[in-house]
Amino acid sequence: MFYETGHRDKTQLPHDPFKAIVAPRPIGWISTRALDGRINLAPYSFFNGFASNPPIVGFSSDGGYKDSATFARESGEFVANLATLWLRDPMNATSAPLARGENEFIHAGLTMAECRLVGAPRVKESPASLECKVVEVVEIKNRAGEWRGHVLTLGEVVGVHIDEAFIRDGRFDIAAAKPLARCGYQDYAVVESVFSLARPKGGGDA
Ligand SMILES: Cc1cc2nc3c(=O)[nH]c(=O)nc-3n(C[C@H](O)[C@H](O)[C@H](O)COP(=O)(O)O)c2cc1C
Fold first, then answer.
1. Model confidence over 48-88: pLDDT tens digits?
2. Collapsing DSSP states into helix, strand and coil, what is residue 177?
3. How far apart (Å, rounded) are the C-alpha atoms in residues 104 and 204?
4. Ligand 1 binding residues, C-beta < 6 A
């Protein structure tokens, strides 16, 4: 099968498989604080790490500047919390379209913990959180140069919180943390086992 984007056979593929192919995607559970103090928390699966030194992460807002992108841009800060299997229901609850600035921590029954270097709170129940300072806000354009409301917010990770219960032999035990990942449709995946594979010499370590 081949189709040009926008011309797929909708009897064969009623739903766009793009997000099932670019999968699994890590979920950045983004907490922010607006300049007037309003708190926000929402999951973003157009999220990833883009550089390691300095460490850079980014999340992309569809449909214009949602609260996370708005608050991150105005404050210059955000926190990316790790969403895990056991946090799936509160994570999902924080995606509800609440009124701007209504605190999703309270809505989802989560605890706000103070950060050290940024004003936004982190999710206390999460095994890892990254404190970030915004380095760039990119209004992503299509090939015709038109902006269709996609905003990529990139941040440098300036502080890392890890629940020490998840440190084993000097490593973050990702299989124990069971991070959630987003697949297409309404599907999710969870990392519960890992394996190691040595790189060829000179193959980098990303
Ligand atoms: C697992 C998951 C992943 C999501 N990923 C994105 C995303 O990458 N981009 C986006 O714009 N919305 C995404 N959403 C929807 C937002 O979380 C939702 O629109 C939310 O209300 C935005 O909140 P905010 O306006 O407080 O930032 C996702 C929702 C879920 C449940």
1. 999 999 999 999 999 999 999 999 999 999 999 999 999 99
2. helix
3. 39
4. 27, 40, 42-46, 60-62, 66-68, 92, 95, 97, 182
